[in-house]
Amino acid sequence: MELKKLKEKKENNKQGKIREFKVGDLAVYPAHGVGKIKAIESRVVNGEKHDFYILKVFEKSMVIMIPICNVESVGLRDVIREQEIPKVYEVIKKDRDSLIDSQTWNRRYREYMDKIKTGSLYDVAEVFRDLYFLKITKNLSFGERKLFDTATTLLLGELSTAKNTDEETIMSEIESLFNDPL
Questions:
Q1: Alpha-carbon span 60 to 39, nearest angstrom
Q2: What is the domain range of residue 148?
Q3: Are residues 64 and 99 in the same domain?
């Protein structure tokens, strides 16, 4: 699947479809969440002038400088559209009964971290779902608890932004998914 994503990125670059952001646009930075483009600045780095997006991440009040030429490689993207939310909810609902815990916690941790780093909300939803069900059956390791918290924060932050509602409402909707029979 990663190979497919890389091919899509290369194809988009060939067609000149690199996403350009403007000041005030909302964007998602992988593993950090939703933020707002506060400025576009030029800086000289190693004697060369480069343009940067200045992104202020809401959740952590963090400011990130992203070279405009690296937008695709770092995975900066638009917030999902509200119409895509049901697809994310489907990811959370599916495969509940097929979650088999046959891996060690550190292998799971690496796989989940890789998924979070992709920046895909669908991958984050998978991590959230898997760890949610895992914590029902056993205690999560410290690292898994931190990953679960990260996935929850990323998921709630983007879904609430996309739906223009508060995180508590989104969490109630997600919890209702777990209570629904398949």
A1: 18
A2: 82-179
A3: no
Do the beta carbons of residue 163 and residue 80 sit within 8 Å?
no
The angle formed by the CA atoms of residues 27, 47 and 19, to the nearest 5 degrees, is 20
Query: For residues 182 and 132, which has the higher predicted lDDT (pLDDT)?
Result: 132
Residues 164 and 140 in one domain: yes
Alpha carbon distance 112, 144 (integer Å):
9
Q: Is the pLDDT of residue 9 over 80?
A: no
The predicted structure's pLDDT at residue 71: 94
Q: Residue 5 pLDDT > 80, yes or no? A: no
| Residue/partner pairs of 41-47 with CB below 8 Å, 24 or more apart | 41/65
Residues 68 and 91 both lie in one domain: no
Question: How many Å apart are CA 12 and CA 10, to the nearest integer?
Answer: 5
Give the tokens for residue 162: 């996309």
